[in-house]
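Morning run. Coffee first, then this:
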Amino acid sequence: MKLVRGFSQIDNSIAVILNVGDNVWKYGLYICPDIDTIFYGLTGLLDVGRGWGIKGDTFNFINQIGAIGLENWFRIGDRDLATHVLRTELIRKGMTLTQVTEYFRSAYKLKTKLIPISDDSIETRIVTSRGEMNIQEFWVKYKAAPKVVGVIYKGANNSRLTARVLRLIRSSEKIIIAPANPISSIGPSLAVPGVKNELAKVKEKVIAISPIEGKQAFSGPATKYMKALKLDISPVGIAKYYSDIIGSFVISKADRPYQSALKKLGLNVYLNDITMSSLHEERRLASFVTGIT
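And here it is:
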């Protein structure tokens, strides 16, 4: 979200390819956490402290769910509920996820294009010491506590890349892989058939930004997922995960010791401050990446 917000401050012509692996049916509603976080972040509605939902929201609906005896660990705010109700209604009327997302983009008057990687269902499932579970259950209900032994992108093999995303990959001047969790936020999109092949064809214009500084991920349980997939917890591990599809890699200045190993992978390596703890830093990093040729 942070890098998207940074780019939106300097360029209205960007397009964002959206992860659908977090999407889930809950309480009879189709909920798209990653997509909604982008919407709320770009419109200034996002509850930055929580990192999700609408700031100042109330939770009467979800509290009532609990009062009548149902599990309510998946928290939905009352204003946030409007998004999910309307999306579900439009989906049931026959609109694709791409069309519904465009409806919301227009309603919010956003200039940034927002396009799901696929209109098909992809569910990120985490294989843990407590069994296999939906990523929301793992992350929210169990607070990422169980040991992770694998990650599955259910439905990905039968999904199709949308025509709009295919055109973007082939025609965009640059393709930026944000410093999001590589396994749960980027991985579901890479699992869609054809995506890796298309990116490999244009890898010289694909730039990834490391989500790790040293051995520490900036957010989320990225290192738990990486350990489960037997990836080295370092910028080199990230680069190897992306090695077939990227030509350039931006890492923290603190990770200069990894530069030589990264260059041996055939990558153009750029060092910068990649933390984004303010709107100014988001814009600064976006501007730096824009200048990479």
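The two ends are 23 Å apart (CA to CA). Good start to the day.
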